[in-house]
Amino acid sequence: MKNIKYLLLALFIFLATPGCKKFLNVEPIDALSGNNFWKSKTDVENFMNGIYYRLRDKVGGTQDFYNFNERSFFPMLEMRGNFINSNGFEGSQTVSNLVNNNMNAIYYGNGRFDYLAQQVMSWKVFYDIIAASNILILESDKVPSSSLSDTEKKQYKAQAVFMRNLSYLYICRLFGDAVYYTDAYHSKPLPRIDQVEVMDKCIADMAAYKNDLPVAYADASYKGFRPTQASADALMMHLNMWASAFTKNDKNVYYRNVLTLMADLDKYTAYKVLPITPANTKLIFKGNSVENLFGVLQSSNTGESFSRTAGYSFYFSHYPYAGNVTQTNSFLSYSSYNISLLFKPGQADNRKDIWFDNYDSGNGSFQFKKFANTFSTGSGSSSYVGSDDAAIIFRLPDAILLAAEAAAELDNDDLARSLANRITAAAGASPISIGGEFLKDLIFQERTKELIGEGQFYFDLVRTKKILNFKYTANAMSVSDYNAKAWTWPLYLSPEEKAANPFLVGNSFWN
């Protein structure tokens, strides 16, 4: 057990990246015992930063071109099952397999973009985050109050609880059932348990710690990148909606919870939905606007850039929004027919006008401009433009549309329309006026339009079961395959993981 403690502590100290501060004095592993660690606020802050770094590494990787730390987490989530055309792209076979749910072809593939999709198929980083969060919650009590006040201890613990439950949310969204634990230095082998049980435990866990999070941070650089009480509300809304999709009991319990959380979220006056303009678009996706609830910072100014492939722009944009100065076509585009069903020609919608050029071309002239913060390297013919936008995990329109969906499921059409029309109004689009099942369809479409490129599309397909309908996905799934969990990702389990836990099994549909 002592060796486990030393190794885990060492891991997170070495990975700690405290905001824009790039330097850290690291003690040797054999010094991490007794009172040599967990002795100051700095120790807790550095450890917490190590937890955030692990999430950053999972979704963003590092900026070096074509290395083994490339990532494409959110783009892969968005592309699966989507209506996408390839325009002579080297990863077109991987994209085709994602669209058509040929996941084992990717699992056993050996191309560059197979590798990027394979990174999604491992839960290890999420369990690293869970393990470290559990440690911080236990060990931070050792720090003397002269260095870390009780209020600060509670706040750090609540941040760790948020990260723990965010990780469980992603594990269940990606793989279904999960191994669940919250004790520090856990070593006992456990089987996977039903994902609804995991969601219920996470909801209770986050609710118990939510009020220990701040309403806002004194340090403005944390805005949008460290969880607040509003962030916890958004997380619990997603936990409830995911549970509602798979529970065998009363779904309405979860829908009512979501509306209660939305009412609480509306009490925080620091957050509001911004009108869609070019300037606001750049502000929102930089990650620290009044819309942003939680995300992962990317900043070329501080050398904290993701790998090129981590951004949606790499695939769906071309110069001057992405790529080499000579790149005049986007690698991928949306199907002309299907995106025209979303953003209908002739109908007002500022998202269509501001976020795209040639949105319905279906070819390389398609230009995605939603992620418009960029940085440049090189000069002349070697000039390259990369994305400088944050990875957005939760923002206010996402939460509002979840609440609209919950209200519609409870047959409260007036509330559902009122919530959804907060988003249509900001987009300069026509308000929703119908009810019933058509209202539910329009709320789904509104989520698809508003959150396009943000990594929510496939989760929404699965959660709403619209993945069963060719109207909403390029590759509809049969009910029997859905029930057999064909919607999950293949789960890569290393030999070490299998040896440590004989209960571990992959996802039966794929593995």
Percentage beta strand: 5-15%
Question: Which spans of ≥5 residues are poorly predicted at pLDDT below 50?
Answer: 1-10, 12-34
How many beta-strand elements? 9
| Helix and strand sequence | HHHEHHHHHHHHHEHEEHHEEEEEHHHHHH
Main beta sheet: 3 strands, antiparallel
Helix content: 40-55%
CATH A-level architecture = Alpha Horseshoe
Distance between the termini: 32 Å
CATH topology (level 3) name: Serine Threonine Protein Phosphatase 5, Tetratricopeptide repeat
**What's the overall geometry?**
globular
For this structure, what is the CATH class?
Mainly Alpha
What is the count of helical runs? 21
Q: Which structural class do the helices and strands define?
A: mainly alpha
Task: Summarize the model shown.
This protein has 511 residues and is mainly alpha-helical. The protein has helices at residues 2-15, 41-60, 73-79, 92-99, 103-107, 112-118, 124-139, 150-175, 195-209, 229-246, 252-265, 278-286, 313-316, 336-342, 350-355, 396-409, 413-426, 436-450, 457-464, 479-483, 495-500; strands at residues 84-86, 292-296, 323-324, 332-334, 356-357, 367-368, 374-377, 384-387, 391-395. It is found in: Cell outer membrane.
Topology overview:
Blueprint: H1 2-15, H2 41-60, H3 73-79, E1 84-86, H4 92-99, H5 103-107, H6 112-118, H7 124-139, H8 150-175, H9 195-209, H10 229-246, H11 252-265, H12 278-286, E2 292-296, H13 313-316, E3 323-324, E4 332-334, H14 336-342, H15 350-355, E5 356-357, E6 367-368, E7 374-377, E8 384-387, E9 391-395, H16 396-409, H17 413-426, H18 436-450, H19 457-464, H20 479-483, H21 495-500
Antiparallel strand pairs: 1-4, 2-9, 3-8, 5-6, 7-8
Helix pairs in contact: 1-2, 2-7, 2-8, 7-8, 8-9, 8-10, 9-10, 10-11, 10-16, 11-16, 16-17, 16-18, 17-18
